[in-house]
């Protein structure tokens, strides 16, 4: 399952990434393997997605969220 498939209030743990270039950017923002993630908001049209990770809120495009594979 990837992050873009979670609904508001659901949580997951980062397992790996599908896009090498995007993974570097995401890891710099705190999305590290083993880090818990909680979806806090989804925009009315479904893009972007607001998540809580590493103690702060981060907004990601649906494409970016789909590159994060969860456990």
Automatic annotation (TrEMBL):
Origin: domain of life: Bacteria
Pfam families noted in UniProt: FeoA
Keywords of the record: Iron
Native source organism of the sequence: Mucilaginibacter gynuensis
Name of this chain's protein: Ferrous iron transporter FeoA-like domain-containing protein
PANTHER family linked to this entry: FE(2+) TRANSPORT PROTEIN A
SMART domains for the chain: FeoA
Residues in Ferrous iron transporter FeoA-like domain copies: 1-71
């Amino acid at each position: 399952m990837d992050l873009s498939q979670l609904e508001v209030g659901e949580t997951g743990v980062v397992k790996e990434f599908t896009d090498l270039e995007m993974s570097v950017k995401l890891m710099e923002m705190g999305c590290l393997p083993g880090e818990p993630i909680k979806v806090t908001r989804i925009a009315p049209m479904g893009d972007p997605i607001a998540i809580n990770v590493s103690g702060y809120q981060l907004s990601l495009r649906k494409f970016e969220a789909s590159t994060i594979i969860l456990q």
